[in-house]
Amino acid sequence: MLSDIEIAESAKLRDIREIAAKLGLTENDLETYGKYKAKINLPKGAKRKAKLVLVTAINPTASGEGKTTVSIGLADGLSRLGKTACLALREPSLGPVFGIKGGAAGGGYAQVVPMAEINLHFTGDLHAITAANNLLCALMDNHIFRGNVLKIDTENIYFHRCMDMNERQLINITVGGKGRGVEREDHFDITAASEIMAVLCLATDIDDLKRRLGNIIVGLNTDGDYVRAKEIPGAVGSMAVLLKDAMKPNLVQTLEGTPAIIHGGPFANIAHGCNSVQATYAAMSLADYAVTEAGFGADLGAEKFLDTKCRAAGIEPNCVVIVATVKALKLHGGAAKETLSEENLDALQKGMPNLLKHIENIKTVYKKPVVVAMNRFASDTQAETDYVIETVKNAGSTAVFTDVFLKGGEGGKELAQAVADACETPSKMEYAYDLNDCVEKKINDIVCKIYGGDGAEFSEEAAAKIKIIEEKGCGNLPIIIAKTQYSLSDNAELLGRPTGFKIFVKDILLKGGAGFIVAIAGKIMLMPGLGAHPAAEKIDLTSDGQILGLS
């Protein structure tokens, strides 16, 4: 079979104006970036009419679950059923593209294109976010250097520089000194984890963007009060100017010509893991079915989509799709990676509780219909397939085996029909916690209800920061837990459905602009490093401009 990049490069793409017309958009609604990409100017007051479908997954494994691939195949499947469908996905980060995870444009015959451009610079949104982030840092440090009227405490600066690349050397650095600025300890975050990324993704319009930018807390002053970005002369307006075009959603297409809006790219293990509110609004306004995705497993991306993004955007999904594979479930059940192609009902049965926990969460905590999408592998046996279908049925849901990787939308039609049927089930979403509860209770509610743990433990530093946040009247915000994606716990080694564990919260970050509180749990880092053999080692460019090795 051809590689992903070979399939994408050999595809015949439609003019982006033709794709836009499927959504009722005219050339006047577009700002084109060549023939195959465009920014959307969504008409004001557009009614959000679409059925919203959220695609999430079990806790990811080394075998790969194919969540983005299924999202794309589902949208193509809906299109093949004669329905107007539109994707709303996140933009890839250069960190994973050149690191270990690879790109985020789907795979096989369920891809968004132009694949290489989407995975690389695209329309420059992540560069704009990086520039706006670092402009605020430059203005803040310049203010400190020029006399520090705001009395910013250089020992308590919360806002950090960022870049869109995995870079271990920038995890801890010293800035300034030798007459070129006030010397202090600092670090970089990856752009996908930056607060500017979250602000852009949660802002509902330009005014909301500027309000959120102004509310970013850069640190404390020497009196112990928060210093916000709006207090630094020129910061809000100049950042907004850099983000003006980045605020507009990007329109591309699938290999089959289904419209795809790709915008914003926060990671789900260290940020809130959802594409922009603007992109979701656009998809819901322009199509009958809007298919969106939340990063990593349902304990991370879906929880943050439902408890944070839905609250901010005033939306809720009509149906939730949970993606899994037989291979991944066997890994959760203790099977060795090299044996995953062999039938192993014992490992499958032991790993199934991971999927069942996610189904339980969506159905009983959030009260939403669930469809399970099983990404089919040639090695899946009839006995394994039958076991999954029957077990999921007993859990009150439907499991559909899909072939979107090999067959595109044709392989997603059965899933699309199951999703369309589920969307007709009336439901009213509930949340995992009450916003008005104290910070510790909200964190404990997530751990107990969503992860299945026994609650959280807090470091002295985290407890002290929670006390300050609540004393300053900022405790009634949503919670974002930053933890490993590989386990329901904060220990990546605890697979399946662990019990009897507690989450250890080592730090707390207040994101005043984004409007949420981040609890840092386990060994999570806000700036990843590269592995022993990063993807960059196999990526190359030929003399005639052909890209090799991109996935």
How would the blueprint of this fold be written?
Elements: H1 4-10, H2 16-22, E1 30-32, E2 38-40, E3 51-57, H3 67-80, E4 85-89, H4 94-98, E5 106-107, E6 110-113, H5 115-119, H6 125-145, E7 152-157, E8 161-163, E9 173-175, E10 184-186, E11 188-190, H7 195-202, H8 206-214, E12 217-221, E13 226-228, H9 235-243, E14 250-254, E15 259-262, H10 277-286, E16 289-293, H11 298-313, E17 319-324, H12 326-332, H13 345-365, E18 370-375, H14 382-394, E19 398-402, H15 404-407, H16 413-423, H17 439-451, E20 456-458, H18 460-471, E21 479-482, E22 503-511, E23 516-521, E24 540-541, E25 547-548
Parallel strand pairs: 3-16, 3-17, 4-15, 4-16, 8-11, 17-18, 18-19, 20-22, 21-23
Antiparallel strand pairs: 1-2, 2-14, 5-6, 6-14, 7-12, 9-10, 12-13, 14-15, 22-23, 24-25
Helix pairs in contact: 3-16, 6-7, 6-9, 8-9, 12-13, 13-14
Structure description:
The protein is an alpha/beta fold and 551 residues long. It folds into 3 domains: 4-124 and 246-423, P-loop containing nucleotide triphosphate hydrolases (Rossmann fold, 3-Layer(aba) Sandwich), CATH 3.40.50.300; 125-243, Domain 2, N(10)-formyltetrahydrofolate synthetase; 439-521, Formyltetrahydrofolate synthetase, domain 3 (Roll). Helix content is 35%, strand content 19%. The strands form 6 sheets. Strands 1, 2, 3, 4, 5, 6, 14, 15, 16, 17, 18 and 19 form a 12-stranded mixed beta sheet that branches. The protein has a 4-stranded mixed beta sheet with strand order 20-22-23-21. A 3-stranded antiparallel beta sheet has the order 7-12-13, covered by helices on one side. A hairpin with a 4-residue loop joins strand 12 and strand 13 (226-228). Helix 13 packs parallel to helix 14 (382-394). It is globular and about 70 Å long. The two termini are 14 Å apart. The mean pLDDT is 94.
